[in-house]
Design a protein that fits this description.
The complex is a heterodimer of chains A (592) and B (239). Chain A is built from 14 helices and 27 strands. Chain A has 592 residues and is α+β, with helices and mostly antiparallel strands. In chain A, α1 links the parallel β2 and β3. In chain A, α8 crosses α13. The radius of gyration of chain B is 21 Å and the shape is globular. Chain B is mainly alpha-helical and 239 residues long. Classes of the chains: A alpha+beta (592), B mainly alpha (239). β12 of chain A pairs antiparallel with β1 of chain B, so a sheet runs across the interface. Bound molecules: flavin-adenine dinucleotide and iron/sulfur cluster (SF4). Flavin-adenine dinucleotide binds next to α1, β13 and α14 of chain A.
């Protein structure tokens, strides 16, 4: 290997939210940082101004901003007895592939997790006892609590310009927000987004049932805003070209709009684009990493030496890089030993499709996170005694901008999918059809895990990740329970047709409708036997490797993940700057 | 992995113009930006005779299919007049048609329904083989081509393909073919007219979709009201 770049203090693999927030902290602390990003540079004014962005076929149907499966995909099977096969076409695995990562095209729902979500084991034991846990379920505390992360959530909300309303401020409930949220020190930096006919219907309907609706915290600026890095954002225009699209107004919270402009002004920061990291290189004793090996655009191999290696390449990629770099012991489901790839899970989804008689919902107006939710059945916000499961779901409606190609199958059940009857039904449904979405918790199971596929490879000849996954009994019971709640709300909203759905009622499959929030596989925790990372997201085995992203989550909350991965990144950055730089060793000692 | 397979996929990627363009590779000291550049969608230039991928016969069959899936009625013009076949022809000539983004390495083995398509065919190949199979079936059953059948016969055939009751032979998976035809026809009807279909924004007028508009702050407060917004498309009228 002939090509070696100058050594740096830290190399960051992947420049999405995690990578860019880490880069911002480390460069501000004076470190020399290189970020290596597999995808290209994306620039608002050339890549997604309003005259380029408003193209459903290109950005949504053809997924032009996502990682093409041709470059890398995963193989999949429902259980160990099957042979995994590659997911060849666009699927739920929607990975980012540009500077900004998935943060460029995400929907922007900007949640804090509940205190329960970080300590599900302790909470469950205390409130219900061990008998509440179904067989084989993986339930463990994260080693970090909501209170630890509160200041970092706050910082992220300010950087991203999140629009919302507090529900619990310094321990006191506040009118209009989510009364179930963990206590916050500060209000959101921006007020909530505008409401629509759809959010009004949900608010009224759920209130009739005694529930507590609130506007979802949104990564869309409700007003003009300047963030703490000095970057300005414009007000969201509710264009609806949001989820799967960039934002041409500098209104959507994204690394591109909120962090990278500030970062690029720093002389101690460099990005290598179109360059894919293959693995970290380890010192001879295997206790530290010496840097990373990557391929540039012309497939030339390079080495980037660094004192600190940060994997922030998204959950799946992080696990794959650990396995390819031989960091940590791979999980073996037969003996239930090893940790890398263990505790993989997903997001359990149910809900209801609704069709009104004569509404004018105008759902093409909207934004990725223009949404109202109830949390009465999320986390541990309700009594689970006698229910046989833990967890729950956030139950929401979202005016995210209905689009004609994507909505074409959203017609009442029994309608033909083509011909004049379909045209008539679709024309009516475009104004009258919508859905309630239950974004549920997920706990992993001993039999659900990631490893390297024995047969299928990427274009570089490295093995793909093999996903072995299906829903478990806990999550199936939760989905059934919350599906019924969605149906009740749909009826209270006055919909003429209310049809429940439950993704967990059948086998999991990457092409079946659910969410794209995969988690785990390189989880943080308190015990190296059941976690890959300590509470600072530092590898237990190789102390100068830190891993950022939803791969750290031992369980998924009934929310979208990004504010939590962002808060954890900022928490880890602080630990690196204040502790690791002077210690250069494990930040948590393992008692023998 | 077969060396040849790998090479052809790398070439497909290199040729794939709608995949993000490679630009500056080492970026520091400010944001790279190219004046006057915009990342516009790739639109393949039509070949002589006006078609980019289809033969005339294939084009006619695609039009006939589009007209059954989206018939002309009191709501809108039909799929054929809307330009769905033109749209599909151009799509199949580009990255989409050649399956540039699909994972096409390794063995192709039939799996479980959850594992999804394991077909080695690209969308362009599936259309070509599919249209041959459809016409072969029509010749065998009616001694006519698909285009020559009457509407009721055409619908019957499509319903058979959709439900899986009808098998078009071993060259194509009938259900996958039907789903692709339906998806592409709908795309042609609903995508921006810049791609060759959705003539005069007919589909957007039908469902009341305003098209390429980017600012609704003035109307978001008109909750539950019928908004008659004249749609607009990405076609650059200044050119
Ligand atoms: C369609 C969609 C909608 C979403 N909506 C929401 C939402 O509303 N709310 C929410 O909280 N979350 C949402 N998410 C999830 C959210 O986008 C992700 O959680 C978040 O962006 C992940 O950030 P990250 O930094 O961990 O990874 P990413 O943003 O994926 O960044 C990782 C980067 O690493 C690069 N990379 C990968 N491998 C390599 C390699 N080997 N070498 C070099 N670079 C590499 C990738 O190209 C990528 O740019 C959504 C996701 C999708 C796909
Ligand atoms: S809805 Fe708002 S944030 Fe989303 S792309 Fe449009 S203007 Fe940007």
């Amino acid at each position: 290997m002939a090509n070696v770049r100058p050594k740096v203090d830290a190399v960051i693999v992947g420049l999405g939210w995690c990578g860019s927030l880490m880069a911002e902290e480390l460069t501000r602390a004076g470190l020399n940082v290189v970020a290596i990003e597999r995808g290209p540079w994306f620039e608002t004014s050339t890549d997604f101004p309003p005259s380029v962005d408003t193209d459903e076929l290109r950005w949504d149907t053809r997924r032009s901003m996502l990682l093409p499966p041709a470059i890398e995909t995963t193989t999949f099977r429902n259980n160990r007895s099957q042979t995994a096969l590659p997911t060849r076409d666009w699927s739920l695995n929607e990975l980012g592939y540009n500077v900004g990562g998935s943060g460029t095209h995400w929907a922007g729902m900007a949640w804090r997790f509940l205190p329960f979500d970080f300590e599900p084991y302790s909470y469950t034991l205390k409130r219900y006892g061990k008998q509440q846990l179904t067989d084989g379920l993986i339930v463990q505390d994260w080693g970090v609590t909501y209170d630890d992360l509160e200041p970092f959530y706050d910082r992220f909300e300010k950087i991203a310009g999140v629009s919302g309303k507090a529900g619990v401020l310094n321990g006191k409930q506040v009118e209009g927000g989510n009364i179930f949220e963990g206590s916050r020190k500060n209000e959101f930096p921006l007020p909530p987004l505008a409401t629509t006919r759809l959010t009004d219907l949900f608010t009224e309907g759920s209130k009739k049932l005694g529930l507590h609706p609130f506007m979802v915290p949104a990564g869309q600026a409700s007003q003009a805003y300047t963030n703490p890095l000095g970057v300005r954002m414009g007000p969201c225009t509710y264009c609806g070209y949001c989820l799967y699209y960039g934002c041409g107004n500098f209104s959507k919270s994204s690394p591109n709009a909120c962090v990278i402009p500030a970062l690029m002004q720093r002389s101690n920061f460099t990005v290598l684009t179109d360059s894919a990291v293959l693995r970290a290189t380890l010192a001879e004793d295997g206790k530290t990493a010496t840097g990373v090996t990557y391929l540039d655009r012309n497939r030339k191999e390079w080495h980037q030496p660094a004192d600190i290696v940060i994997f922030s390449a998204f959950q799946m990629q992080n696990v794959r890089l650990l396995l390819l770099s031989k960091i940590g012991k791979p999980y073996d489901p037969a003996s239930r030993s090893g940790v890398v790839g263990r505790a993989y899970s997903f997001q359990t989804v149910s809900g209801a499709n609704l069709f009104f008689e004569d509404e004018q919902l105008n759902q093409y107006i909207g934004a990725g996170a223009l949404s109202v939710q109830v949390d009465d059945y999320n986390g541990d916000n309700f009594d689970h005694r006698g229910k046989g499961f833990i967890g729950g779901a956030g139950i929401l409606v979202v005016a995210r901008g209905a689009r004609p190609i994507g909505n074409a199958d959203a017609v009442p059940p029994g309608t033909p999918r083509w011909g004049s009857d379909w045209k008539k039904a679709y024309t009516h449904a475009f104004q009258n059809g919508t859905f309630i979405f239950n974004q549920g918790t997920s706990f992993s199971h001993d039999e659900c895990y990631l490893d390297l596929d024995p047969e299928y490879k990427d274009a570089n000849g490295d093995p793909l990740i093999r996903v072995t996954f299906d829903y478990n009994e806990n999550d199936r019971r939760m989905a059934r329970f919350t599906e019924d709640k969605a149906v009740e709300i749909g009826k209270a909203m006055g919909a003429k047709i209310v049809n429940g759905f439950d993704s967990a009622a059948t086998n999991y499959g990457p092409y079946l409708p659910a969410s794209d929030h995969t988690i785990g596989g390189a989880v943080m925790g308190t015990d190296p036997k059941t976690s890959v990372l300590n509470r600072y997201q530092q590898s237990w085995d190789v102390h100068n490797v830190f891993v950022l992203g939803a791969s750290s989550f031992p369980n998924n909350a009934g929310y979208n993940p990004t504010s939590t991965i962002a808060a954890l990144s900022l928490w880890t950055a602080k630990a690196i700057i204040e502790q690791y730089l002077s210690k250069r060793g494990p930040l948590v000692e393992v008692s023998a | 992995m077969q060396r040849r397979e790998f090479l052809s996929s790398a070439l497909a990627l290199a040729a794939a113009s709608t995949l993000p363009a490679a630009r500056a590779e080492v970026v520091s000291g400010g944001q790279p930006w190219e004046p006057g550049q915009a990342n516009l969608p790739a639109l393949p230039a039509p070949r002589q005779g006006g078609l980019a991928y289809f033969t005339q016969a294939e084009f006619d069959t695609a039009g006939a299919l589009a007209d059954r899936l989206i018939p002309a009625d009191e709501l809108s013009i039909g799929g054929k007049e809307a330009g769905c076949a033109t749209f599909i022809d151009r799509q199949l000539a580009g990255d989409y048609g050649r399956g540039a983004t699909l994972y096409r390495l390794g063995r192709f083995v039939k799996g479980t329904p959850e594992q999804g398509t394991q077909s080695p065919l690209t969308p362009a190949e599936r259309w070509r083989k599919g249209l041959v199979a459809i016409d072969a079936y029509c010749q065998k059953t009616f001694s006519k081509t698909f285009v020559q059948l009457d509407g009721a016969q055409q619908d019957e055939l499509l319903r058979g393909m959709e439900s899986g009751k009808l098998e078009l032979g071993s060259e194509v998976e009938t259900r996958e073919l039907f789903e692709q035809i339906l998806a592409n026809v709908r795309e042609g009807f609903f995508a921006d007219p810049i791609y060759g279909g959705n003539k005069d924004m007919a589909s957007w007028k039908m469902i009341g979709f305003p098209g390429a508009r980017y600012d609704f702050r003035d109307v978001i407060g008109k909750k539950g009201q019928k908004l008659t917004i004249i749609p607009t498309s990405l076609i650059d009228n200044t050119l």
